[in-house]
Amino acid sequence: MNVASGQGPIPRGDLVPSGIVGLLGTQGPTSRTEIAKGLGLSPATVTQVTKDLIARGLIEELESVPSKGGRPARLLGLVRDAGVALGAKVTADHVAVVTVELDGTVRSSTELQYDPAAPDAIERLGQILAKQVAELDDRLLGVGVGVPGAVDSQASGIVDAPTLGWQSAPVGPVLRSAIGTPVLVDNDVNTLAAAERLYGIGRAHSAYLVVTIGRGIGCGIVVDGGIYRGANGGAGEIGHIPVWSPGTEQPPCTCGSAGCLEAYIGAEGIARTARARKAIGPRGTLATLLRAATTGDVAAQQIFEEAGGMLGRALAGVIHTVDPEVVVLMGEGVDGWEFWQTGFEPSFRRSLLPARRAVPVMVEPWTEDQWARGAASLVLSSPFDSAGNGGEQSRLVRARLETR
User: Fold this and answer.
1) Using one digit for the tens of pLDDT, what is the confidence trace for 86-125?
2) Is the pTM of this model over 0.90?
3) Which residue pairs, CB below 8 angstroms and at least 24 apart, start in 277-283?
4) Is 383 exposed, middle or buried (CB count within 10 Å of its CB: 0-12, 13-18, 19+)?
5) Containing domain of residue 59, as a range?
6) How many domains does the chain have?
7) Residues in the chain with pLDDT < 70?
8) CATH number of 287's domain
9) Residues 233 and 131 reside in one and the same domain
């Protein structure tokens, strides 16, 4: 469950200070009384631990607020630059890297060219990140890496990513050796779900979906405040739900199969449909189609509407399976959501059981560095890792936090 909402396990031992830091990072300035309630600690423990955290420059006392009785309560807040995490999102042609402070503020952002198909691709990634780490000071807590594929666990970081040409790639071990810091690795959509847990809807909801539309179609599943990863780290690959009808042409998918949802409504799938219908030229892309739809081209708008309808029907099946409180839509594709939505809403609601038809769907504005910020959240969420997803790597992050 979400520790920040006060529903999680009571932290003990070395988790108490990092639990307090994590709560302040997610909820903002908070009184000692509310910290005690939120983490299930005694007021005396909170007083003792926060005194030490203040002395070490991790948190600070802020203004007073009125109390229901007695003297006004003093709020505590993070010294947000007391610790930072590095986040990296790996794509088919570049690596996006951000430095993120404890409260989620992106301090710096950069993109570097990268070829994941190169024979020494993993070693090269290690060199890129080691150089970025060398430019930081000793406040670095760890490195989070998001990849478009299945990851066996955040702690080990063995990756199968067909779109990158990686099979059983030892990303975690190689990067840890190259960088010399804790490294956590996960599916890129799961990292966005982790960021929502810290800084978004996960502060108010313990069961939700983060669905991304863009080059592919992905889904991060959060149940009881924790990311559900499945038996082999591949949960949430809704882009590979088969949606073709017998007797119809089945478009090829990057996974090696055909007729997958992603093959129809991923960026290339939509562009392929648009080229076949001559809504765009033979070299046209999804961006070309979006420009046409924005200028009022009915054929272009219809293609997006059909894609929205297909997404709605597929997502309804996921809702029936997982039963989330809320769905968040993100990714590069939300730039054209107004055109997807005309097909999505009626299809989605109509396909749901009556008891599920009111499930909220939130569309979040998108920026490129959100992927990398999500990866950094793997590190910043380590104080909440009661399920042990990060294993030894999460423990090492907490140890670094303890010695700030």
Assistant:
1) 999 999 999 999 999 887 888 899 999 999 999 999 999 9
2) no
3) 277/303, 279/303
4) buried
5) 3-78
6) 3
7) 1-15, 18, 65-71, 81, 138, 245, 383-387, 404
8) 3.30.420.40
9) no
